[in-house]
Write a structure and sequence with these properties.
This protein is mainly alpha-helical. The protein has five helices and two strands; from the N terminus they run ααββααα. It has helices spanning 7-11, 42-49, 62-88, 94-114, 120-123; strands at 52-55, 58-61.
Length: 132
Amino acid sequence: MGNYPDFIKTTGYGDVAGLCGANCRHSFGPYIEGITPETYSAEMLDEFANAKVKYKDKEIPYYEATQIQRKLERNLRNSKSKLAIKAAAELDTTKEKESVKEWRRKLKEFCDETGLDRDPPRERIAKQSVAT
């Protein structure tokens, strides 16, 4: 036990921004030195760290591509929110519908070009409620 730093302090486990917190997709399990096999080989870790995708005729890091994708998803959600608000207020939504359509197109084109998978839950907004 003395060979490892404090788990909670190091990982932030139990905190919303830490391991297994909001939006964290990591998991963990017991590790027994000398018995538990490695999940990933050094070669696999190097491959993950150096992964690239093709975008606009050049290679960019996979992580950078996922951040571009997240930005496109945020823009799409923002447009959907504006559309929902105007629709709830019974205002003209023509501009907002076009914006949603345009962000969907941009996101689809980006994912098609880079080979990244779309993640539909990231494109959704919560149902809007209007106080009465």
